[in-house]
Q: What sequence folds into this?
């Protein structure tokens, strides 16, 4: 009887040791993957995370980090699958919020604004204090609104840019015509009044004012364009 008890006890210890060794292997692969990820070797990090999952397919850390590595390589669709799995399986709300945050980033990148907005909202439900997600959400809403306005106006960004170019071209031609007429009238006045210095000074003042106005308009357009294209503050939540 004692011998049987001894054998069963040893079998239990051996089983427990095997499980522990397996868990340690998971963590080792993840640590190695994280090291490679920080070095920018995302393809090699992906391999390590997949090795970890081959040891433990329910390891949410490996699932999430694999999504990050894929995303950094431009494998957006497969990255979203990993983030979705991590978000559903992860019990920690902060980590779950990070997974949905990254889903929002991918969707926003591809102008899938409704999906991105919903993902950001889900992230905030799990972590209401995440200001980065809140910023992305508001930016995404503005981009969606702008996109809808462009569509309702009968054209996308390309049409809008073309219209702006045409307007600038027409304005330039009109300015040239106005300038030509102004010069003609100016010459006539100079001949009649014989006051070239005073008239030339008025012309130069007007040109300076016009140049200043055009420069200010260009700076305003640049600021608006920069605001619309401003990158998200946190493109990707760091891996776990």
A:
């Amino acid at each position: 009887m004692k011998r049987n008890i001894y054998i069963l006890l040893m079998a239990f210890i051996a089983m427990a040791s095997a499980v522990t060794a397996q868990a340690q292997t998971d963590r080792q692969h993840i640590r190695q993957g994280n090291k490679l990820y920080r070095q920018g070797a995302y393809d090699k990090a992906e391999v390590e995370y997949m090795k970890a999952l081959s040891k433990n397919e329910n390891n949410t850390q490996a699932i999430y980090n694999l999504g990050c590595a894929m995303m950094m390589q431009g494998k957006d669709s497969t990255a979203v699958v990993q983030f979705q799995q991590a978000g559903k399986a992860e019990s920690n709300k902060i980590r779950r919020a990070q997974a949905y945050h990254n889903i929002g980033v991918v969707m926003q990148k591809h102008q899938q604004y409704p999906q991105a907005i919903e993902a950001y909202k889900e992230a905030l439900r799990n972590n209401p204090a995440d200001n980065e997600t809140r910023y992305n959400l508001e930016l995404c809403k503005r981009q969606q609104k702008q996109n809808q306005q462009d569509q309702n106006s009968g054209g996308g960004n390309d049409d809008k840019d073309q219209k702006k170019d045409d307007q600038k071209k027409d304005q330039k031609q009109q300015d040239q015509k106005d300038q030509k007429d102004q010069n003609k009238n100016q010459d006539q006045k100079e001949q009649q009044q014989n006051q070239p210095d005073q008239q030339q000074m008025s012309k130069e003042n007007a040109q300076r004012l016009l140049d200043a106005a055009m420069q200010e308009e260009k700076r305003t357009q640049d600021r608006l364009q920069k605001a619309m294209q401003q990158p998200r503050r946190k493109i990707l939540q760091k891996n776990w």
Notes: Residues 107 and 116 are 5 Å apart (CA to CA). Confidence is low (pLDDT under 50) at residues 1-19, 194-199.
